[in-house]
Amino acid sequence: MTLAAVVDEPLTDEALDAAGGALARAAGLSLAAGLRVALREAVRAAARDLGLGPAALARRAADGDAAALDALAEHAVVVETSFWRHAEGLAALAARLAPRPAPLLLWSAGCATGEEPHGLAMALLEAGRAGHGDRILATDLSAAALRAAQAGRYGERSLRRLPPALARRWLVPAGEASEVATAVRALVRFERHNLLDEAPSAAFDAVVCQNVLIYFEPAVARRVVRRLAAALAPGGLLLLGPVELALAEGAGLDWLEVDGAVLLRRP
Fold first, then answer.
1. Does 152 have pLDDT greater than 80?
2. Are 233 and 204 in contact (CB under 8 A)?
3. Which of 152, 176, 198, 207 sits at 20 to 30 Å (Cα–Cα) from 139?
4. How far apart are CA 106 and CA 204, in angstroms?
5. What is the rounded distance in angstroms from the CA atom of residue 241 to the CA atom of residue 88?
């Protein structure tokens, strides 16, 4: 088959479904019902990255080709986020953790471009945790998102929910954007991680995973919640997005209602 034939080969719904199924098995991401357009665009973008036609990319992904799946996942990952999204959850978590005397170890799972872990660091600093030696591990599947997160530079859209007083304390002007201050950066370390893989080995005082599992098949999402729960130290807290809380049923966690937010605690 010639290169032109590969490039011009039509991308059928069957090929798209096969690629989507392989993506779900590899990364948990489900761009099925209601997201077919997004999956098609992700296939096309991944194909451009690898110099393939969309049908060829879909076929390689369906066959389990690692490079094709990585490229597809890179474009399928949803990175829509902002600082202080579901602020009541962050505030409740910081308030519960603030009195603990020992250094805290937290995990921001599915951190996208870094707004969540940087916001979590701000919340801890606001709660008086400066100098306590706290550490936040922030992970994501997307290498591109992690590069943006490590840069720590954000525009108006990412900052639209952040209270102005916090912006003045924890952000530094950088041209038309803003950068997170050194004190915030110092708390956060970024690392690539697939939520279907084993969790980092440490026992975390808290795990934050918001608006990530809504893109997973429900059965897969529930397995991931159990894995997140197992990564907690006894008494550790799990913060999910409000619409994801139902996925924690049966995970053996206590439910705590704190100032309008729900935290899940490992007994």
1. yes
2. yes
3. 176
4. 5
5. 11
Q: Are 42 and 141 in contact (CB under 8 A)?
A: no
> What are the strands, taking DSSP E only, across 33-159?
105-109, 135-140, 153-154
Is 262 exposed, middle or buried, given 0-12, 13-18 or 19+ CB atoms closer than 10 A? middle
Q: CA-CA distances (angstroms) from residue 164 to 131, 137, 173, 174, 229?
A: 24, 26, 13, 16, 34
Where are the extended beta strands (E) located within 103-176? 105-109, 135-140, 153-154, 171-174
* C-beta of residue 53 within 8 angstroms of C-beta of residue 9: yes
C-alpha 149/C-alpha 158 separation (Å) is 12
Q: Which tokens belong to 45?
A: 């973008």
**pTM (two decimals):** 0.84
Q: What is the pLDDT of residues 35-71, one digit of tens each?
A: 677 788 888 988 998 999 999 999 999 999 989 988 8
